[in-house]
Amino acid sequence: MDRVVSNADGSFLIKNKILEAIIEPTGKVRSLVHRRSGRNGIAEGSFANELCLYEDIPLFWDAWDVMDYHLETRVVLNESTVAGKMVTSLEKIQLIEDTSLRKVLGWKMVFGEARSVLKQQIVLEVSSPVLVFESEVEWKETHRLLKVESSFDILTREVYYDSQFGHIARPNHSNTSWDAAKYEVVGHKWAAVSEANFGAAVLSDSKYGWNGNGKKLSLSLLRSPKNPDGNADMGSHSFRHGLFLFDGTFQSSGLIRVGFEFNVAVQKWINACCVPVGESFLVSSNPAVVIDTVKPAQNFAQRAIVLRCYEAFGGKNTTRSPKNPDGNADMGSHLFRHGLFLFDGTFQSSGLIRVGFEFNVAVQKWINAGCVPVGESFLVSSNPAVVIDTVKPAQNFAQRAIVLRCYEAFGGKNTTRISLGFGVGSIRECNGMEEIIDNEPIKAEYRGGTSQPTFSAIFKPFQIKSYIIKLP
């Protein structure tokens, strides 16, 4: 990544191979260039990441309604001309981190009648297609609504909003009364505006109220109703949003995957012996003391974990052998492994105890979003239009099965091939109650001389399908 450039007007230029952004001294984004297409996504004379405060006094339901009149009370907070009115202080943006892995800028303001505080860091990571805004707010206001707004150089009559399983489209104009009534729309992980060959999206990790008006996208961040709870939303909050530019349509751009990666950390499972000791969440400095069990406390209200350790080298120990009066105990089929391990020195110094654990327990590793190649996943959909959304144990544990739930996300009829990184006994389509609905099992295929089973599926627009996959 290139070094951060500090401009004479107090703004900063940050860029990686995908994006190039100019950040104003007040934290607003003046320019955001998609380097592959060379196009600036921000409308001329406009900005992204404008923090705006609105009046919020509903006529009836204080904590539920947002009235349309509030759109006429807009005050932009992070601009120099508003100081002394709604902003007590605004600390101009500063460079926090400038490394080969990421660039971080930060700024702070005190605003509102109750002197709420907002701290924000703007982050651009190497090879990331998303400009990320990480905000912390100490919220103290009364009947105020805080939004973040971005104006894009995109000509469109619709905004697309992510939903639980797919997306919806809503107008970004007020040509009719029923269009005007759609000034507040629910959306999950992202909202996007798109032309035929270029588009822009705002990503959110925890906020769900959106407004699309012309070239502007607004995301509601915090409200301050006083009924029925007079302290609703008061206190400390932390949340993220991001800006993502793309060429082509949002379906072909990878936006749906980017939205998932922005919201859900990718998990990676690695064979035993591959994780260095230093990467463990829990480490015993003495190899004689083994951390054996980490589990949630039985009393979930405690918000606690239980840590169980034992001495393994030959100290005083107590154990017991259970007795079972079942005459058929252990009858039937069994599957097990054993191995041979040679070592020099003593078994204590050889690492035998650690090797024994690695032989018995698969190591888990957590990695930041975007770091896991598709080929390493246990479950892969060959078509990005079909998203594997849910993987869970079957409700009937006696089945030894998992439930796979997928949906079509682009809004068209699509075919995909789902690859499974494990052996299967049978594959059946089921409904949400996990009741079998197909007439016969789905045939698993083995392609390209691999041992990994696959099966194909056809999805209608936004269709949701569930499968029960029995293990061998």
UniProtKB/TrEMBL annotation:
<dbReference type="InterPro" id="IPR011013">
    <property type="entry name" value="Gal_mutarotase_sf_dom"/>
</dbReference>
<dbReference type="GO" id="GO:0006013">
    <property type="term" value="P:mannose metabolic process"/>
</dbReference>
<dbReference type="Pfam" id="PF17677">
    <property type="entry name" value="Glyco_hydro38C2"/>
</dbReference>
<protein>
    <recommendedName>
        <fullName>Alpha-mannosidase</fullName>
    </recommendedName>
</protein>
<dbReference type="InterPro" id="IPR041147">
    <property type="entry name" value="GH38_C"/>
</dbReference>
<feature type="domain" description="Glycosyl hydrolase family 38 C-terminal">
    <location>
        <begin position="14"/>
        <end position="230"/>
    </location>
</feature>
<dbReference type="InterPro" id="IPR011682">
    <property type="entry name" value="Glyco_hydro_38_C"/>
</dbReference>
<dbReference type="GO" id="GO:0009313">
    <property type="term" value="P:oligosaccharide catabolic process"/>
</dbReference>
<dbReference type="GO" id="GO:0004559">
    <property type="term" value="F:alpha-mannosidase activity"/>
</dbReference>
<feature type="domain" description="Glycosyl hydrolases family 38 C-terminal">
    <location>
        <begin position="386"/>
        <end position="467"/>
    </location>
</feature>
<dbReference type="Pfam" id="PF07748">
    <property type="entry name" value="Glyco_hydro_38C"/>
</dbReference>
<dbReference type="GO" id="GO:0030246">
    <property type="term" value="F:carbohydrate binding"/>
</dbReference>
